[in-house]
Design goal:
Blueprint lengths: L14 H4 L7 E5 L7 E8 L5 H6 L3 H10 L12 E11 L7 E9 L4 E10 L14 H18 L8 H15 L7 H11 L2 H19 L4 H21 L4 H18 L5 H10 L4 H5 L4
Parallel strand pairs: 2-3
Antiparallel strand pairs: 1-2, 3-4, 4-5
Helix pairs in contact: 4-5, 5-6, 7-8, 8-9, 8-10, 9-10
């Protein structure tokens, strides 16, 4: 179900997933890349660094943003621009006189979030974060999660269309596992195994039905509801098989409002009963439409 030219959709329900608490000591830099699909916002939190390291890393957010903007992650020209938030939480990790850092990363895509507290990297004062130096621990970490976001976005346009980007992410894991800063890459390898599992493939296929219903047949309400209802049933099967599929639960969090809006005048209680079972914390919302 190929979809190349659809209007930009702004999902208000995604805002809650993307919103993060403001911290007074954050170093934040935001910009819209020219001629790129990803609109990146990079935030670096340096509270836990000693004063000298705070000074050294004061503009690291700009370094990471330039790194992201310098590369075209999305090869296809039909993908609508989307926002990605990247937050890096730094701690000092000195080693033999070299400036090294422990790093936690939080990456927010349009309807999913990745959190990782197991990263380390070295970065020296006046160093530039570039791709010309080959694989780097921090660059690889950023690239890895951006490719996961891109892969999940491409799956919205056609069946398994994000496969190429998931393969890119898996290739980065193989580099990271055998690099100097291998800490945490075993867990990212586990994540890739999960993403290539049959259960996650079913989740990816569900998105194809969902977004075809939302985007591909906008002028045909019965067809819209039909495709989205199929997607909800597939989502139910995904979570019945693996209740801790975090991507699937985040998907509901991001899209439940637009599902409610699509079906609220349909008289179809079945959809809302399914949503209530999958998302019981919002039972009060769904109960309003269950007859």
């Amino acid at each position: 179900m190929r979809r190349k030219n659809f209007p930009v959709l702004v999902h208000a329900c995604c805002a809650a997933l993307l919103a993060q608490p403001l911290l007074a000591s954050m170093k934040t830099h935001a910009a819209t890349p020219l001629n790129k699909t990803i609109k990146a916002k990079v935030t670096v939190i340096i509270d836990k660094l000693p004063l000298d390291k705070r000074q050294k890393m004061a503009k690291f957010d700009q370094q990471v943003l330039r790194y992201i903007e310098s590369y075209n992650y999305v090869e296809e020209d039909f993908v609508e621009p989307f926002e990605v938030g990247v937050q890096l939480f730094l701690e000092d990790y000195p080693y033999n006189g070299e400036d090294r850092y422990k790093c936690s990363i939080l990456v927010n895509g349009p309807d999913l979030q990745y959190s990782d507290k197991r990263a380390q990297f070295a970065f020296q004062e006046r160093e530039e974060l570039t791709r010309t130096q080959g694989f780097s621990a921090i660059g690889g970490l950023v690239d890895f999660y951006l490719y996961l976001v891109v892969g999940n976005e491409l799956d919205k346009y056609d069946e398994m269309a994000g496969a190429h980007y998931f393969e890119k992410a898996r290739a980065i894991v193989e580099q990271g596992k055998f690099g100097q800063f291998f800490y945490g890459w075993d867990r990212r390898d586990d994540l890739m195994r999960s993403i290539f599992s049959d259960n996650y493939k079913k989740f990816r296929n569900m998105k194809n039905y969902y977004f075809y219903g939302m985007w591909g047949v906008q002028n045909d309400l019965p067809k819209q509801r039909g495709f989205v209802k199929q997607a909800i049933q597939q989502l139910k099967a995904v979570l019945a098989e693996k209740s801790d599929n975090l991507a699937a639960t985040q998907f509901i969090d991001a899209h439940y409002l637009e599902i409610v809006d699509l079906f609220k005048e349909s008289g179809d209680s079945e959809v809302f009963k399914t949503l209530k079972a999958l998302n019981p914390e919002r039972a009060e919302i769904y109960n309003e439409y269950i007859q």
